[in-house]
Fold this protein.
Amino acid sequence: MISIFRAFLGTWAAKAFFLLLIGGFVLWGVGDVFTRRSIDTAVATVGDRRIEMDEVGEAYRRQLSSVTRMLGGQAEPTMEIKRSVAAQALERLITQVALAEAVSAMGLVVPDDALREAVWQTKAFAGPDGKFDRRQFEDVLRNNGLNEARFLALMRTDIGQRQLMAAARAGAASPETMTRLVYAFQQEKRVAEMVELRLDAVRPPAAPEPAVLERWYTNNIDRFSSPEFRRIKAVVLSPDRLAADVVPDDAALHAAYQARAAEFVQPEKRSVEVLLSQDEAKAAKLAETWRAMIAGGHGDWAAVQAAAQAEGASPVALSDARRSEIPAPELAAAIFAAAPEAVVGPVRSALGWHVLRVTKVVAGSTRSFDEVRPQLVAQLQADRAADLLYDHANKVDDLLSGGVPLDELPADLGLAAVSGTLDAQGMTRQGEAAPIPGGDDLRHALIAAVFQAARGEPPRLVEAPRKPGVLSGFFAFVVEDIAPPAPRPYAEVAAKVLADWTQAEIRRTQEAAAAAMLVAIKGGQSLADAAALADLKPRRLPPVSRGAQPGDEVPLQLVNPLFELKQGEPTMVETADGFVVAVLAEILPATPDADPVGYGQVREALTAAMADDVQAAVIAGLRARSRPQVNKVLVDRIVQPE
């Protein structure tokens, strides 16, 4: 066989075959080594800027995490939701890149000082004292999947874009004609005359036959059914529980006291009257005049101010000022060295010559370590609990992911265990609040998640929503059983059935009376005459605008109908207390000239809305100019990796 194959290799047919094979390699194989382009990894291109997969993936994961928390952490986002989140994350990145390109092209820069000040002024990073807190800053970044360098880069970009948008918004203004029309619409007031047919004014009817009540029970069975109950087993990890186990030692407390010493010192404050002159001789003369006025019993501040102004001096009074708040150090030294009520000066400073009198002294004070010890303990406990919270949460999450049941979790992780049956309002079968540990935010989040979960679904750790600067905690649970809503036996709810039927009959009676009154008014009777037949008297309501709020004398249910009526037309509405029949008595047009403040507020609101529209148009234009192109295949790969 081999000899035959070798003989074949020497034939022209074999040589022709190999020539074709080699030619194919040259044309398609070897040539591809030189001509093949690298695979494009950009998810999108915006102008000259490429948005790579890792950047989009980071934004996608961050936004998906936020969506998952909104879903309670129990419902897994569907593929449609994931695709939508990815599309939104990419669109946001494209917009940011387009704006960043515009900022760069215009030469806008963000100095480091401006960036630092913006971070310090961000409320989300404020501690309990309202000032920037490094620990809070790190917690917020960690919870949002960001490191410091990445966040500062994003914030620098955001500040630059806000500068650009501020310029775009600056030219927006509401036209006078439109402002007047909107003001006239919003501020127009209407006056009505009203008759109220209250439910509590009707004598309850006699109890009906049992068959009537049984039929009412059957027709309204949902009113007499028990709610859905769920039996759960849960664990809660809260900062309060962790803090209770933290016992700071004296060394840590004293160190904290020294670090926060400025918070416990109340500096001395002084109220002072000061005259400022640019001429020393005039200042000396004013000092003598002031002393003479005091000696004569008429050295009140008003008289002193008049004398100072006559000499070309400037009077000013400072109330409860600290030394650091005095505008000149020489003046501050004189004020805090002066005896109360004595006229001092002239005192020279960079501002000129001062004559002064201290009118009040508030002594400074320092709170001792023992006085603030409870506060320091609470703060150190809270700080330590914040550290432990995420550390313990990670351990619990790892254990649950490994299949460890809730009742087998270690006892040293600070978990509070709870089990029992509750409804969607967090009430037990006995009508008491279920004893769920933690704060209200954690409690509400746990109950909401319980009633979104499926029976027997494996537990996983969920972080409860929290307010800025406040840690709520974590929880995990499993739904062991679900008891669906079920009708209660008639005998058990007979009293409630009778009460419901009675209330319905009272409402039906007053509704019929109100309808008859409305028909009579439409037939030509006055409101007073129609009300007299029901032994009622109308009352005139105060003027009301479209923006009426609860608590006004005019029922809220009546406001919108009033603005749909012509003058003299009647209407009828139902309220929580009964029924109202009203007639539009007067229309009071708005007068912008008589309300400059309100008119200005409308103009400002319209200007802000127009500025929003201008901003949106500028952003759309910058996006279009950058001609973004998206690789949809790579977007899908981010959502569903191969």
Residues 229-248+395-484 form one domain.
